[in-house]
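Entry 14. Structure prediction run on the chain below.
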Amino acid sequence: MRTQVGIVGAGPAGLLLSHLLHRRGIECVVLELRSRQYCETRIRAGVLEQGTAELLRAIGVGERMAREGLVHHGIVLRFDRRDHRIDLSGLTGRAITVYGQHEVVKDLIAARLAAGGEILFEVAGVEVADVDTPAPRIRFRHAGAHRELRCDFVAGCDGFHGVCRSSIPPRALSTYEHTFPHAWLGVLARVPPPSEELIYASHERGFALQSMRSPELSRLYLQCAPTDELEAWPDDRIWDELRRRFEREGWTLPEGPVLHKGITAMRCFVADPMQYGRLFLVGDAAHIVPPTGAKGLNLAAADVRVLARALDAHYAEGRGDLLERYSAVCLRRVWKVQRFSSWMTSMLHRSAGGPFFDRLRHAELDYVTGSRAASTALAENYVGLPFEDG
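Output returned:
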């Protein structure tokens, strides 16, 4: 097989890159370990920055998002059993859209297949070779046969545990990591959201978040220990803990059947550089952020914009400078998003450091909600920093 860009991974990053390259007349093939059904049903993040939503609309895959997505103009910080609204649109002129990541994936897969794009699901044994030469290769097995994809460039969109980052020699890569001493228990429930906007609750028992996926589905999170097992969290305990942490006079939390639950670790990770030879790391393959700031999918979309523009410059204009600057441009944004996501996590979660740090956290919440300048800084980061494409 021969193509211009080989893309490993059919998550949002790989599919979005494939679609952008197709629109620029650049050939690509997407390889995915999982089945199409798995990719389209895996429950993940659901908050899109305005820039990400605008990008999806601009490339023709935003019709269903415009119809079913929920546009939010603010978020609520709840502490001391009182609500403090951050007016995102009033402070920045921008908004967010609540639309599940798996729905974005569905839309992108449908668009790629409708355009004749090649996505190979359920591949195995993926190996990336010769990325430090002008002729990279991707070896894999598909439909019982051993195959090889020859290409000009490889885009590693295969997530934190994928093979692409591990294909880079350790001497050529620096990594930066931090693991938080808590995790998130996430729940998808068939119950109407009790609030029209997201509620971030900081409580003495721990953090909680109320989000949604549709007018009939709520997405809820609880701070828990990273060593917790799902068996320790039956539905009754989950609802009881959510009621306690969201407690506020005159406010009730409706209950309903739990459709899905899972525990997510809270960690930060950055690989530097995000490129080696003709291999480019995109999204979670290069960086992980704690979910508090709702930045994972949006950060991947920012990487994709930079890489697509650089590849377009290479093929259409014969320029290599944007490809050379890919890592530097992306990492500038990555570290700003790491700063914001870590700050949000520390400000909202019960501290393992004791009463002193809990008082500092409370003072931070009090300052952020009482200062227009501080509220604006939060809002600017939450709706999304301006895109750079190099």
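The mean pLDDT is 95.
Filed with the rest of this week's runs.
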